[in-house]
Each structure stands twice: as structure tokens, then as C-alpha cells.
Specification:
The complex is a heterodimer of chains A (170) and B (291). Chain A is mostly helical and 170 residues long. In chain A, 76% of the residues lie in helices and 0% in strands. Chain A has a single domain (2-160), classed as Arp2/3 complex 21 kDa subunit ARPC3. Chain A is built from seven helices and no strands. In chain A, helix 3 (36-48) packs antiparallel against helix 4 and helix 3 crosses helix 6. The longest helix of chain A has 32 residues, at 129-160. With 291 residues, chain B is α+β, with helices and mostly antiparallel strands. Chain B is 37% helix and 26% strand. Chain B has helices spanning 2-32, 37-72, 76-116; strands at 119-129, 137-140, 153-156, 159-167, 172-176, 183-189, 194-199, 205-209, 221-224, 237-243, 253-259, 268-275. Chain B is globular and about 75 Å long. In chain B, 36% of the residues are buried. The chains are: A mainly alpha (170), B alpha+beta (291).
Amino acid sequence: MIWKRTVLLFLLTITGLAFETSVFGRATLVGAKPELLLLMVVVLGMGEGPAFGATAGFVMGLSTDLVLQLPAGVSALTFTIIGYVVGRARAQVQSPGAWLPMVMVSIATFLGVLFYAAFNRVLGERFGALSVVRAAVLAAAYNCLLTPFVFPLVRALGARLRPRPSEVGL
Amino acid sequence: MIRMFDRSKRVRWLLVILIVASLAIVTIDYRSKGNGPFERIGHVALTILSPIQHGLVTIFRPVGNFFAGFTEVPGLRARVSTLQRQVAELRAGENTVAEIERENESLRKLLGIRDRYNLNTLAAQVIGVSPSNFERTVFIDRGSRAGVKKDMPVIAGDGLVGRVIRVGASTSEILLLIDRTSAVASRVVPSGETGLLEGDGSENTKLELFNPDAKLGVGDRVVTSGYDRGLYPPGIPIGTVVSAPPAQSNLSRVVTIQPYVDFSSLDYVLLIIGQTATSSPSPSPSGTVAP
């Protein structure tokens, strides 16, 4: 079952990246693109816990880095932390409402974009503060709008291929 | 309980390992300055992605264009709801026709600009866009197998698009004029003043004139000057001056330029391989170059 999850992660990454660079590259929201892979990381972190959230974050972040001109590793770092934190935060919520995924996706995307820009700034990249905040707000809003479509699909795939306790040594 | 504690500890260790791995990748890539192992892996990733991007662009371009308009025009939803099914049917047909017309127009303009400037070119289709909100690049369906090389200038029917920054076997990446790392040596027509045109990530660009007392006004055209080590041929149209405030210092003056090219709807582009020997880019008698 673990190898099936690896395949799932690979397929989700390729599909997400292909959609991000083609369809969503053009279908912008007031000039901003969604953070589709970050959205998937949040969904996986929420459904599968911090360990898989962090792993998915690392894989999807690194894949994003490979197609960008900005320093590699920054998306991997950002997505890893987001996946872990979301997994931890989700465990603290006792009675999740239907709104929880949209709220968590919005907050995680907003903070993720800010962290990504801040870390790149440390590496010498020049981003205007206003354009960073604008991108973070719009990407969070866009991801929030996509959540009702992406969340059930990714969540169902993750749950279906969840390993049995015996397979993870529990 | 002990098992839960163990598991929690293992998860924390996993997080530490992944963070250290990410930081190691950042360090390696930062030190290699674009020539490291991750650049090469990136080429492979782009080659894997390109057929999927190509397929998705073919299927979703009309939908994407429609959706782009939908998200950018407030109030469109209200109009659509009043017209209901009849409009939906018409739109399906219109999208197809409009898409073909737009494609024809784009190709016609490309042929026009190629002939006007006597350029040896290679045509390519845009198959992808950078997923980042902080980067303005596009991916095309031509790579080293088709003869694409790094730093080749790229134009569209309306003018300069940018230059090639990464070449894979069957795909390449183009840095758009409006990216914040782009810089093009430019000249204002008709005054002849020169400067450096830089992107800032928005739809407009900034032209830093070398002469702070330069006389120019809104509506003046900007073309490539050809001064940047021959990277861009001279005379290629870039855009028009939309704002020309007075100089803020005695050293330079910055004006805002709106590019001729609509970067949000790039379909086809031409990569400039060279110019025919018979002529150089020929501005009109007035010295201006029409897009």
C-alpha cells in the first residue's frame, strides 16, 4: 500500500504541476495564479497527518522549484513546513466544520506565499512588499475558491490508499 | 502511549531531515548560480511536463481564455445568468470561432513582423506559464532539437517578448520583458534617447533613461537599441511611453512603458535565429518603427 501512496504522490505532483503551468497560468484571478500544489499539500496534511503532509510538501515543493528560475529548495522548505503545521493543527480541532478546509487552505496559502517571498528576499531576490502581500491575498482567495473542487478529490484518494497500521509499524 | 510518543518523535525527526535537505538544496543551488545539478534535473522535469502541458493547452485554452475574462470582468456572472441556456450554447460556438480567429490573427502578425525586419526565425507555440506569482516566464514547444539556444531573442506579432533562458530537448523557457530580472537596452523614437528597460513583475515596464534631461512625451515609441552585446537586434518594437514624470535626480530619469505585446494571451512566438544579409531592420523614413 505504501508504494501506491508513492505513485499517488507522483501522479498528483505531475498533474498539479501540469495544470498550474498551463490552465491556471492563464486563468488568473486579477492577475494572480493559484498555488495548486500548496493546496494539495494542505489537503494531504489535513487528511493524512503531519508526517505525510511534510513528505508531500517536500516532494511537491521540490518539483515546483525545478520549473522555476528562483533558488531551488525554497518551495520545498515552505511546503514541508506548511504540510507539517497543517497536519498538527488539524489534530487539535475536535469537531471540524465544513468550513475548516477553506479556512485552513486560505491561511496556509497566505502564510506560505509570505514565507516563500521572505526567504527569497534573504537570498537576495527583490520583491516589492506590496506586490508580495497582493500575491499572498489573491493566491489565498483563489485557493479558497478551488478548495471545494480539489479537497474532496485529493482527500478521497489519500484515504483510499491509506496504509494499514501494520504496514507502518504500529 | 509509548508507541504514540515514539511516532510523534519519528515525525519530528522526519521534519528535521526534510528541512535540512531543503536547506542543503538551497545552498547547493545558490552556490552553483544556475549551473548546478538542479538546473539539469529541471530540464528533465520540463521535458516530462511538456507533452502534458501541450495536451492541456490544446484542450483547455478556450476554457482558460473564457475563464480569464470571467474572473477579470466584474458583473459578467449577472449578465450570463440572465441569458441562460441560449447564451451558453452560443458561447460554445463563439469560443471556437473566436479562438480560431485569434490564432489566425496572431499567426498573420508573426509573418508580418518577420518579413518587415528580414528575420530568420523559428516559430514556436506557448505551452505553459510559470506557476509562480513572482516570476514572468513562459514555456514553448521547441528545444535544442529544433536548434533553440540560450539568450535567443523572442518576438510576437506586436513586438519584443523576451529571451530564451533555459533550453531542454523539446521545450524551452522564455524570460518575459515584464519579469523583474529582465533588462533590455532600448531607444525612444523619435528623440533617439537611450536607456535600460526593466520589468517589475507588473504588466508595464520601467525605462531608465541615461539622460535625465531627455525630451520625450506620452505616446513616444520605444524600440530595442541593439546595445546589449547584440543580444537583441536593433529596431524591434517594445512599447509606448504611458507616463513620463520629470527626473527625480541628476543622474537618470525613469518613465513607464506599456509593452505592445499582451503577455496574458501569448499563443505563438518567433525565436530570432538571425537576420538576412540583404538588409538590416529598417525603420520608416521618420525614424519610427511601427509594431
